[in-house]
Amino acid sequence: MAVNFTGITFSLLRWLTLTPYGHLWMDLLLLVLNISPKLRFLKIQYVFPYRPGSLPLSWKKPSYVPKCLSSSLEIFLWEKYRGSEEDKQLTRYILANSNCLKKAKIIFTSTFLLEEKETMEKELEAMPRVSMMSQLLCE
């Protein structure tokens, strides 16, 4: 997929809800974050059932930090979090680079057993966060 956002800026975008679909959604998310300098609320919500091949095969942490992460993102919400390696990498990246983050809320998919949820919650709590004010909530 070749997408060129040269010259485009979503300067008024403050709230973004993304429904992941396909295998390139994380790359597209980073492109949108990069051109949305005043984004304050980011929600990722799985709606479609998991199908093999529908998630990214691999995700490479970008060499840059989008401006909205370093200067404006306050709330990060992930609904139906699956805990895949790619999900963890993206969550780790957002927590580690969101200077203004006040709240991160992760809502696990309902298919997990209690022990799996507890393990994932511990993994999330151990992820480094750059914002000293950020609060991590898991459900």
UniProtKB/TrEMBL annotation:
InterPro entries: FBD (IPR006566), FBL13/AtMIF1-like (IPR050232). Residues 67-139 form the FBD domain. Pfam families: FBD. This is FBD domain-containing protein.
